[in-house]
Amino acid sequence: MNPTHSPDLVIGSDGLARPAWAATTDLLRAYYDTEWGMPVRTEQGLFERLSLESFQAGLSWALVLRKRGGFRAAFADFDPDAVAAFDDGDVEKLMANPEIIRNRRKIHSVVNNARATVALRGRGGLVDLIWSHQPEETPYPRTLAEIPSRSPESEALAKSLKAAGFTFVGPTMIFALMEAVGMVDTHLLESHRRGSSGVWA
């Protein structure tokens, strides 16, 4: 592969091509190589990703990843039933927890979204709601500039989630979620991860 064909790719010491954002630290590299873009089809898994995406808003994904263990410990491993039972006292404990991102609105949103996730079970559940918005086609970007930040499907999914009581679910954040859980494949065409999810040929 000629790296000059893809200006946004970095060839690692292992000879593999990754976008620059995934080549800066071992943590981001491992996340990109093993997790980002792979299908997530469990309620707990999607609730965790939805929660982490909401905490990332306005911040770096690297920061969220560094605190992921803290988030999991603080939010009962993102068990929706457990988080749905959090009360004001739990919120105050979270606000005093240095292992997470301490943003009151985002913490309240995660608790609210846990309750919305539990309530949604009677109407098909979070997994079905999210994956029912998978598009018929996926982007085929050669450069980062060719990757959209939102789509008609992310706009529709954001609207559906809001109607179900979820918060912090704007169409741009939801598109990032769709990328992260394999609903769309926005790996650059010459990345070694392109097509790895098995969802898209």
Distance between the termini: 20 Å
Order of helices and strands: EEHHHHHHHHHH
Poorly predicted segments: none
Instruction: Give the fraction of residues assigned to helices.
Output: 40-55%
| CATH H level, superfamily name of the domain at 43-180 | Hypothetical protein, domain 2
Tertiary shape: globular
Beta-strand percentage? under 5%
Q: Please give the count of helices.
A: 10
How many beta-strand elements?
Answer: 2
SS-derived structural category:
mainly alpha
Enter the CATH topology name of the domain at 43-180. Answer: Endonuclease III, domain 1
* Largest sheet, spatial ordering of strands: 1-2
| CATH class descriptor of the domain at 43-180 | Mainly Alpha
| Main pleated-sheet profile | 2 strands, antiparallel
Q: Provide the gyration radius in Å.
A: 17 Å
What average pLDDT do the residues reach?
Answer: 95
CATH architectural name of the domain at 43-180: Orthogonal Bundle
